[in-house]
Amino acid sequence: MGNTYSLDKDAYVLIFHHNQFKNTGMNRQGDEKDVERLKVFFDNYKAKTEFKANQTVKNVKETMRMTKEMDFSNYSCLIMIIMSHGKKHGIIEAYDGTYDFENDVVELILANNTLKNKPKLFFVQSCKGDGRMEIDSTSYTTNKNDILKCFSAYEGTVSYRDPNTGSIFIQKLFNLIDSNPNKEIRELMNMLRDELVSEKIPQAPTDTSTLTKKFYFSALKKKSVGMMVSSISATFLALLWLWL
Prior knowledge:
244 residues, 33% helix, six-stranded mixed sheet, three-stranded antiparallel sheet, alpha/beta, 6 helices
């Protein structure tokens, strides 16, 4: 379909999760539940998944420089998930300091020519500041099409995480995707907001998109054994009918 991204190849999934920090008072209990949820989720999808735990600022920037130079010709899309503490304007906490989501992550990915015209999805689980907002403009030259950025909270507000069950954003969003893989990802974000409103949870996940086509996780879903057997059986019967 011309208005839908082709996801016949595997997705490349890069996950930064920060649960331990140089300042131990910042440690994030419950992060392991989100990691567990994501591992189970992506096991059911065509994806090469890399988890990067408790990276230093230097480690994060080096990983992103390497990602900028990678050849993504054999992948249909890039999915990146970041889980940590955060501040306004996309500042993310690493083990020993902070990095900038736009400058240190997004811009390096957009500079990779082998990702041109391929969907690039970002999911960020973090707080986004203290309620104050300022205008900040920076000039970039990279192509800004085919991007979806999903944040766990609205600018200037907090995100909720249960030490025993994980973060509301990661747990509920990936449950929704798993249950509704045939729904477009932006529709799923709307469903997530509706769910939080109905449950009276004071958190408003946000998304910004320059996707030029529709993105369905169902296209990345691995076929079950039953589906493969059914497909093989149908092919066998068709060949048998032709032979007869």
